[in-house]
Amino acid sequence: MDKAYSSSRENDIYHLWEKSGAFTPKVPPNPKSVKTKHQPYSIILPPPNANDPMHMGHALFTVQDILIRYHRMLGQPTLWLPGSDHAGIETQFVFEKKLAKEGKSRFDFDRQTLYQLIWNFVEDNRKLNQFQMKQLGFSMDWTRYHYSLEPAIVKTALSTFTKLYHDGLIYRDEKIINYCPHCGTAFSNLEVDYVDEVTSLYYIKYGPFTLATTRPETKFGDTAVAVNPEDKRYTQWVGQEITVDGLNGPFTVKVIADDMVDMKFGTGVVKITPAHDPNDFEASLRHHLPLKKVIGFDGRLTDIAGKYAGLTVNQARDQVVADMKDRGMLVKIDDHYQHRIGRCYRCRHVIEPLVAPQWFIKISPLAKPAIQAAVDNQVKFFPSRFKKTYLDWMKNIRDWNISRQIVWGPRIPAWYCLDCHPDIKVNFLDHHKNVVSGFYRDLKDNYSFAEINSGLQSLIAPVGVDFIINSPTSCPKCHSHHMIQETDTFDTWFLSGQWPLTTLGFNPDNPAKSSPDFDYFYPTTVMDTMWDILFFWVARMIMFGVYLTGQVPFKTVHLHSRVVDAKGQKMSKSKNNVVDPLQMSQKYGSDALRMSLVYGIAPASDFVVSEDKIRAQRNFVNKIWNASRFVEMIVDRFRQTNPRLKIDSKIDKSKLTSADKTILSRLNQIVASTTKNINSYHFGQASENLYQFFWHEFCDIYIEDAKNRGEETIPVLLTVLQTSLKLLHPFIPFVTETIYQELQSKFNFSPGLLITSSWPTHED
Q1: Cα separation of 760 and 380, whole Å?
Q2: Which of 173-187, 272-286, 396-410 is predicted with the least confidence, judged by mean pLDDT?
Q3: How far apart are the C-alpha atoms of 662 and 314, rounded to whole Å?
Q4: Structural domain of residue 423, as residue ranges?
Q5: Quick one: which of 78, 287, 357, 647 is 20 to 30 A from 581 by CA?
Q6: Which of 205, 30, 66, 241 is closest to 138 using CA atoms?
Q7: Which is nearest to 722 in space by CA: 638, 642, 631?
Q8: Residue 26 — left, alpha, or beta (φ > 0 → left; ψ -120 to 50 → alpha)?
């Protein structure tokens, strides 16, 4: 062995593993009939977004690699299936920032061109992600790698949509949504960051009342005022119509009584703007109030606002407040009012609640069996406290808005007939690359269908128009060929929610004809991911899995810890607190980085990964190398004096000293505890115990004692070393495999690779 270990060997070791086929489990000819006998072990990788290099959070895939390497050494057919996610809005957001630096925007391109540009951008990052994962030693089956936009996966997702539709679980409706004018798309409630902010509360004259509002600019969209039915101050007004002085002239609204009104807020009177407030929208359904859209998808006031039309929300608010003050409509302003404001989780702009046509899934029929699966322990959670978190959220889940107004992703497979529905609004680039926007009825005489369709950017179809699922050749009513596809794309979680199914080759059209991989590895064994996407992803995978197959997609959900900076903040590029895993692995070796990510970590907790910690684990890697080299030197010394000396790890118990018995007893205990800790997902405890045992008990005590002993110590030295290498391998695979290969023939270790060797056993 060389005097010092160099992590430059890691690439060669990884190629050795790949070439051996260790990553690729074989599926038996009749997987269904032999599955229970063979007990396969499988993990589907949470696919990293293919829009950026991996970050330290992705390096925590180390946890999955520990499980995979451990179960592979147990002799189980073991699959770790890798992949990448197209990441929908996140990828388009990143790409649009790139366009902005070039002085361009998404509106400079038709859909097809923009899609292809993003595709090319993503391809480079996908290759980089694969390189990074290999650098970190992840023993994934690259022959089964998948990408969320590959044709087979998209086809399966579309088939699922069709099945949901025919089962009556897909509908299109005009509801209030979370809309980001900057990103130009809707978001789910989970994708909105609600933060407490100090803003202004405006007290304004409103007919016979004075009321408080944070949004005076939406007054043009008011259709009622509301009071609490228990508020005796206003009982006389309930049911009456009042006239309100408006900046564009007087208007009339009805006074309604509703429990949603907090009598302690402001004056106990609130204006109702159904098209721009979720609570007001719900009130409008209860009281049959009309909708007046005063804010458009561009974040500017509509024509309803009169002279304020075209202003941004902030511009309109300032102008409206100034004008109200001039006309004596403004009573007072509280500039210290604190309330929760929804911001886009991507761009941080304020979310606008808007009413718009969207595609929804009726979630209750999917949620109920997914809840029962958890109650019956068909799927288990670790840590167990997350079971309650999952159940509480699922029991209060709302219908899922699955449509997004972006280009990057599969389009919803619904087609409209423009001739039957000329009131569909289209936005497109004409032959001169000019943006044209308007209703088809007003454009059809000047632009051909081909020009509109080829240059299409987006469309808005009113709720209630007919649509056809899957690609039609012509309209079944009028037989027109002017069929145009919905431009809304799927929420990325719609595709990723089917990830265990699509990557294993499930056939939703004919489940009996699913792939052998699906028959053998589904349900998968473990889903390991971050606790913060329990609702985004895990819950949806369970719902889709049970709905489509009758089985949960995985037997255990392991929610791992989160990497934070020294201040306890989540790492992000915007905060400039990111530690680059690839940079750290190149500097200190991947083994050191891997060990630093699990050493002493408590389950599902926040923890700090510093360069000092990585450096300390590099020292441990060097310690393992130096100890192995010292054992080699001891053996070589005895062999020089006794050339016929038999070198193996066969122990003669009659010759054991008290020191031998102690280290062997402790070795048996560490085998037992490591096995137990990995099985129970206590990786932090397992790694810490191994560190302490190898460094202090084996190196500092036993090896030091062995320096003064004879050749009788060789079997014990080799037994402890070989067993330690096996125990450490899932955590630090590169250095352990390198040592094993160098000493294998010399010490008569079991032939072959350490990665496919057998896991040590222990005595009870």
Answers
A1: 27
A2: 173-187
A3: 74
A4: 413-486
A5: 78
A6: 66
A7: 631
A8: beta
